[in-house]
Amino acid sequence: MKKHSWIMYLVGAILLGALVWLAHQRVHFQWSVFRDELQHVDWRRIIFGISMVVFCYYLRAARWGVLIKPQKKVGSFALLGSQVIGFTAVALFGRLADLVRPYLVAKRTRLPLSSQVAVYTVERMFDLGAMALIFSGALLLAPDRATLPYHEALQHAALGGLVVAIALAVFAVTVRASGRAVAGLAEKTLGSMSPSLGVSAGTKIRAFRDGLDSIATLGDFFRSLGLSLIMWGLITAAYLETTRAFVLSPELSAMTLARCLVLMAASMVGSVVQLPVIGWFTQIGVTTGVMQKVFHVQFEPALACGTMLLIVTFMSVIPIGLIWARIEHVSLKKISEQSEHFSEEDAEQTPAISEA
User: Fold this and answer.
1) H-state helical runs in 94-150
2) Mind listing the pLDDT tens digit for each residue in 227-283?
3) What is the pLDDT of residues 15-46, one digit of tens each?
């Protein structure tokens, strides 16, 4: 691990400790209410939510199979272990382990690692586009949209989501058609401000252009988009089922799709910078805060629901991934360090990585 990573962990731990201390000073926590909320959870909804999230790993494997088809035909089940183990590494070690999935796919398929990082970037583009379409469509068409808190701001955010989706599509088409010219323009424009920035931008655009070669036909594009929309639809449903499982809280048990998407968006923002273990608490804090401040949920049920959302949507893969890694004789720590070493050594030859 890089030295500055440990500095990030230390800073994160200090901030977390400060937040816990402030919460302890200002909030009177009622353990009996918290316990009652968990005791009366509708576990059928929780199990259903976990089932949908787990199925999404198969959809991710199927999508990855579509994206590498021009390089090599690989079945979805052959790539499933790489997805499960990769997301387990992210859950345990944070975003530093993001490149574990392309690393494992490259080893399994014996394809160049750089090509799989390029596929990973295109996969992120589909994730962001699909989520933007779902978020925007739900907020613009939801029956209760007029009753949402910060209604006007959310309508603007929904329109912004549509703009993002359209801009992604236009950018992808432009780069696919004229990637070299776009990279040259970026180098010239940004290079006037910073030569290193211009070179980095040009390199990443060319790598992104290489990744777009994974979409061989229009049919592959629509298959990837369809799988992305189904997957994010199921993840959204898992969020909705989990919140509605808290039957003692009227605000949570009657959660609507539009309100759930606002909560989901906040959760995703909270997970962008995910530090090992510490990131679990920051993500719980973000979702709990949104439920309290935006939807006026009492602190104890909000905390219970935030914790359960983390377990269902993020941590439920850990037991499966640990077993799978054991069967395949994969060391999660070692593979995470190896993939991070690749990202350090070849950063200038790979596209920017971000989680949707």
Assistant:
1) 100-109, 113-141
2) 999 999 999 999 999 999 999 999 999 999 999 998 998 888 766 656 666 667 778
3) 555 555 555 555 566 778 788 888 889 999 99
Contact assessment for residue 348 and residue 206, using Cβ atoms and an 8 Å cutoff: no
Q: What is the dihedral of CA 78, 277, 255, 156, to 10 degrees?
A: -90
- Cα 294 to Cα 131, 279, 281, 286, distances in angstroms: 21, 22, 19, 11
For the ranges 9-13, 89-93, 153-157, 297-301, the lowest mean pLDDT is seen at 9-13
Structure-token pair, residue 133: 């379409």
| 234 within 8 A of 55, measured Cβ to Cβ | yes
Residue partners of 155: CB distance under 8 A and separation at least 6: 139, 140, 145
Gap between the Cα atoms of 61 and 78, Å rounded: 8
Backbone angles phi, psi at 246, to 5 degrees: -90, 85
CB–CB of 258/139 below 8 Å?
Answer: yes
The Cα-based distances of 315 to 50, 288, 334 in angstroms read: 10, 17, 20
Which tokens sit at 251? 């605000």
- The residues, any chain, with a CB within 8 Å of residue 101's CB and separated by 6 or more, are 82, 83, 86, 87, 120
Taking residues 44-50, what's their average pLDDT? 96
The answer for residues whose C-beta is within 8 angstroms of residue 196's C-beta and 6 or more apart is none
> Between 232 and 183, whose confidence is greater?
232
Q: How many CA atoms lie within 13 A of 247 on its CB side?
A: 8
| Helices H / strands E in the chain, number of each | 15, 0
Q: Are 232 and 130 in contact (CB under 8 A)?
A: yes
Q: By the 8 A CB rule, do 53 and 308 touch?
A: no
**Longest Cα separation, the chain:** 63
Asked if the model's pLDDT at residue 351 lies above 50, the reply is: no
Query: Smallest Cα–Cα separation from 69: which of 181, 227, 182?
Result: 227
The whole model's pTM is what?
A: 0.81
Percent of the chain at pLDDT > 90 equals 33
Q: Where are the beta strands (DSSP E) in the chain?
A: none
* Residue 291 · residue 306 · CB < 8 Å: yes
